[in-house]
Amino acid sequence: MDRIKYAYNHGHQIASHTWSHLDLTNLTWDQIHDEMWRVEQALERIVGAYPAFMRPPYGNYNDQVLKASYIRGQKVVIWDLDSEDSLGASVQTSLGLYDSVISQRPKNILPLNHEPLETTAHQVLPSVIQKLKAAGYRLVTLAECLGMEPYQGVNGAPGTPDSSWHC
To answer: Which keywords accompany this UniProt record (predicted)?
Structure first.
C-alpha cells in the first residue's frame, strides 16, 4: 500500500494489471471480472481513484477480455517496446532494443519494463531516461501520452485499512 500511495502522490499514474496476474484468456467471464474488480476495489481504498486503463498480464487478451474491460470502463493498453527484462535480457540487450526504437523516431514509445528487477531499475531505466530526453522525448503518463484521463473517477478520500483489507 505504501508504494502505491507513494507513486500516486508523486504524480505517477496507477492502472490495473489484474489481481493475480493470471492469463485472462484462460478465465471465465466471471473470473475476469473478479480479477479486475479486486484491483479496482484496492485502488479505491488505497488512493481513492478508479483506474481507466488495464494492461493484461503477458499481453494476452481476447474478445471476452476486451468486452469485460469495456464494461468496466477501462481501456486495454499494450506496449510497443518490450525491454525483454522479464525474459532475462541483459542490460546491454535491453538498451540495444531501446536504441533501435529511438533511432526510428516514433512519435510515442510505450515500453514494457519490470521495475522490481534490479538491473532494470538501477541500470536500464536511468540510461534510457537520459537517452529519451536527449532524443527530444518528454516522459509523461500513459494517459497524457494517449490524450485521455488517467482515472474514471477520483473520490480523493482513500480508505482506512481495517480487517476487510486482504491481499
So the answer is: Hydrolase
Instruction: Compute the residue count for the chain.
Output: 167
Distance of CA 64 to the CA centre of its chain: 20
From first to last of the 167 residues of the chain, give the pLDDT tens digit: 888 999 999 999 999 999 999 999 999 999 999 999 999 999 999 999 999 999 999 999 999 999 999 999 999 999 999 999 989 899 999 999 999 999 999 999 999 998 777 888 899 999 999 999 999 999 999 999 999 999 998 887 777 777 776 66
All structural domains of the chain with their residue ranges: 2-154
CA distance 158 to 167: 17
Cα-atom radius of gyration of the chain, to the nearest Å?
17
Give Cα 3 to chain centroid, integer Å.
Answer: 14
- Cα dist from 60 to 5, 24, 98, 125, 134, whole Å: 28, 7, 23, 25, 33
State the virtual CA torsion across 148, 45, 48, 139 in degrees, nearest 10.
-50
The continuous run of DSSP H or E covering 65 comes out as helix 63-71
